[in-house]
Structure formats: C-alpha cells, structure tokens
Amino acid sequence: MDFTPTERAAEVSSAAETFVKERVIPAEAVYRRQMEESGDPDHHPEIVEDLKTEARAQGLWNLFLPDPEDGGGLSVLEYAPVAEWTGWSPEIAPETMNCNAPDTGNMEILHMFGTGEQKERWLAPLLDGAIRSSFSMTEPAVASSDATNISTRIETDGDDYVITGRKWFISGAGSPRCKVTIVMGVTDPDAHGHRQQSMVLVPMDTPGLTVERSPSVFGYHDRGGHVQIHFDGVQVPRSNLLGEEGGGFAIAQARLGPGRIHHCMRAIGMAERSLELMCQRAQNRKPFGKALSDQGVIGEWIAESRIRIEQARLLILKTAWMIDEVGAKAARTEISAIKVAAPAVLEFVTRRGMQLFGAAGFTEDFPLANFHAISHWLQIADGPDEVHKRSVARMELAKHEPGAEFVWPRE
Ligand SMILES: Cc1cc2nc3c(=O)[nH]c(=O)nc-3n(C[C@H](O)[C@H](O)[C@H](O)COP(=O)(O)OP(=O)(O)OC[C@H]3O[C@@H](n4cnc5c(N)ncnc54)[C@H](O)[C@@H]3O)c2cc1C
What pLDDT is recorded for position 410? Predict the structure, then answer.
C-alpha cells in the first residue's frame, strides 16, 4: 500500500489547496452577504458562479470523475486529498469545482448506466455545471435505512411509467437550478427483495411532482434544502429508466463507494480547518493571565484531535486504495468503517473547538457550530452508523466459525 501521490495528484491537490485557501475562504463573507441580500435561502449567489469560472480555468473541474475525457483522470485515492480541501469550505468549495454531492453520485451513475440520450440531456449539462440534480430514495413513511422498504411505486402504463409516493430529505431539490431527480421506486413488488426497485430520471417540472416543504436540519437551512417531494401520478417515458428494471438496488450500491470517500474526506477537511482555528485561538486568547494553549487540558484536546484526524485519514486512504485496487464491493467493510469513523472525528474536534472558542464558537462568525451540525447528520445520511457497524460486525464474525469449540488458553 503506497500513498505517495503521483506527480499529477500532487499538482492537483496543491492547486486545490491554493484555490480553497486563497479564493474560496476569503469569499465566504461575500457569499453570506449575497445570500442575506437576496432574502432567499435557496438563492444561487453570483460569487459561486465567479468562483466556478476561476476553478474551471485552472483545471479544477469534475475531478471526482475518473474518466479522463469527462473528468480529472484521477483514481479514487488521487482524488481523495482534493475532496479534503473542498471540505474546508463545504458550502461553497465543492460546487465551485463541480464536485458537489449529490451531483457527483448522480453524474457517476449517469456515466455508468445512462443511455446516449440520457447522457446528452442530463449528464452533459451537469458536467458543465449548468444545472443541478438530486437523488430521491428516502421516504417519510418507511424505515429507509433499509432500502428494500422503499414503497414508492413505479408502474408501467403503455410507453410510460407512473410514479406515486412521497420522498423526503432530498438534498438540493429545493434549488431552482435542480432540474432532475433520480427516483428509486418499486417496479416489481413480487420480485426478490433486491430486484424489486428501479431508478427513473424525473424532470423536476413534470406535472404531479410537488416540493411540499423544506425542513431545517439542526436549525440550519442548507442551500437547496433537504426537501419533501410528493409524486402524485407523475408520468415519464419508459426511456427515462436508468439501467435495467430491477437494477435500482445495484445502482444504489455502485453510487455509494467512491461517494463515501468524498463525504469522509470532506469531513476530514472540516476537522482540519477546525483544528487550525483551535490552535490559532488557543495561542491568542488569554483568560487568567496565560494563553489557552498553555493549559494542559487544551493541549490534550489539540493532541487528541490531531491523533484522531490522522487515524481516520489513513483509514480513508486505505479504503480509497482498496476501491482502486479491488473494487468497492471487496472494500465494503472498510467503506462502512470510514462512514462511522470520519463523522465521529469531526464531532469530537468541533465539540472541543466550540468549547475552546467560548460563546463565539456557537455563532455563525466561525464555521465550528455548522461543522458540528454536519458531523451529526453525517452519522445518519447515507446510512446510519448502526447499520454500518452491523455490516462491520457481520464481516468480523464471519471470520470465525459459529459453534466452534472455545479453547481456554491456559489449559
Ligand atoms: C442532511 C441529510 C441529507 C440527506 N439527503 C438525502 C438525499 O439526498 N436523498 C435521500 O434519498 N436521502 C437523504 N437523506 C436520508 C438518509 O439517507 C436517511 O435518513 C437514512 O438512510 C436513514 O433512514 P431513516 O431516516 O428512514 O431512518 P430509519 O430507517 O427510520 O432508522 C432510524 C434509526 O434507527 C436506527 N437503526 C436503523 N437500522 C438499525 C439497525 N440495523 N440496528 C440498530 N439500529 C438501527 C438508527 O439509529 C437509525 O438512525 C438525508 C438525510 C439527512 C439527515
């Protein structure tokens, strides 16, 4: 296992670092001002378009896609540090480089499973950053951490599909720039559990599709929201099917491997920025006559944060390396492990960061409180921790024969 970056990976990662630190982070105040002035929480501020133009001119565009024609030609391991840099400013940086969820996962599956017509209509404008997309799987009425529970119906009607059901927590679908959603629903309720579902591309302006509400998450409203959508007899041509009928579950699995590396590396990026802020603040803030950094307890928080970040990053890089070498299926235990480890590190670091900052830590003046909120929802989105731990435990237990004689070591 060798994590030494190739020349191209080092070059791209360094360019991403410079772009995020010198262009994106200084633009955060402009972003906030433009959002406030618009009075619309789903507004698309001009600063994002300006930064997109700059990033694209520097070749920092679609780097998540391994295909050299449409993307950066980087392996999952090579892209991982770029994702980490975008995590330093998660609300702005990923979008400026056209590497933002859920578009990345959607572009990946359109690239892998889309027909020529689907690619032309949806993948091309997504790769161009001209539109956005969303992914509709979770439903309010069923325990959606088990995707076989999905109940939205996709029924055949001549040359069309008719979609009926309700989805929620559909990230980004509240943005006027979101033009298409990929809906996972049941096409054959009598098939085997993992063959019942299919995925269909649904333009957001299709009659019968209504965005019902946009609940806040931990009190935050992320641009584009995490909305609830009602599909009330929504009719689309059967040519909008992605992949094959009954293949929805397999496509969902294919979507999740590299995507989890991106999420986890962004979490590491947020943790790194939080730790940097902690160190700066600790050396400058002086209660009771000495800098906070001179207090043993603060040193422990900083040391523990560094140790945990390094541990998690190494596990993520190992997982990225495995995806490249043996594929996402063979790396599924590691993928589950990092999905638990990375948000936990972010939670640990930001919790201490907020405490170290005193009252300021809980405000929007610093990103710590927002990153802390993200650390919590990352423990649910893309599968709750408990489900991932269950997978890791199963793989671990499978290494041991059930009922085998337990030998007491001292006899
Ligand atoms: C901010 C945010 C953004 C999201 N974006 C999207 C999106 O764009 N598209 C989309 O389709 N979905 C999205 N989701 C939804 C997310 O993927 C689901 O919430 C998640 O899969 C869990 O499903 P559920 O909410 O129905 O929880 P449930 O399935 O009802 O589970 C509830 C809880 O039960 C526990 N649990 C479940 N299974 C087990 C088990 N086997 N053992 C022990 N405990 C268990 C866990 O603690 C879990 O949190 C998003 C969620 C959030 C918070």
Answer: 76
pLDDT at 93: 98
pTM for this entry? 0.96
b/e sequence 253-270, b meaning 16+ C-beta within 10 Å: ebbbbbbbbbbbbbbbbb
Residue 224 is assigned to a structural domain of this protein: yes
pLDDT tens digits along 349-399 = 999 999 999 999 999 999 999 999 999 999 999 999 999 999 999 999 999
Count up the domains in the chain and report the number.
3
Task: Provide the domain limits for residue 65.
Answer: 7-100
pLDDT on residue 346:
98
Helix (H) or strand (E) holding 8: helix 7-19
Does the pLDDT of residue 214 top 70, yes or no? Answer: yes
CATH code of the domain in which 139 resides: 2.40.110.10
Q: Are residues 181 and 303 in the same domain?
A: no
Residues with CB under 6 A from ligand 1: 102, 134-138, 143-145, 169-171, 217, 226, 377, 380-384, 386-387, 390
Q: For residue 324, give the CATH number of its domain.
A: 1.20.140.10
Q: Residues 235, 292: one domain?
A: no
Ligand 1 atom at shortest distance from the alpha carbon of 144: 26
CA 110 to centroid of ligand 1, rounded, Å = 24
CA of 329: how far to CAs of 250, 255, 325, in Å? Answer: 11, 11, 11
> Is residue 32, in this structure, part of any structural domain at all?
yes
The one-letter amino acid at 99: C
Residues 223 and 341 in one domain: no
Backbone angles phi, psi at 3, to 5 degrees: -100, 10
- Of 104, 133, 145, 220, best ligand 1 pocket probe by most atoms within 8 Å of the beta carbon: 145
Indicate whether 273 and 226 sit together in one domain. no
- Asked whether 306 and 272 are in contact (CB, 8 A), the reply is no
Looking at the fold, whether 194 and 306 belong to one and the same domain comes out as no
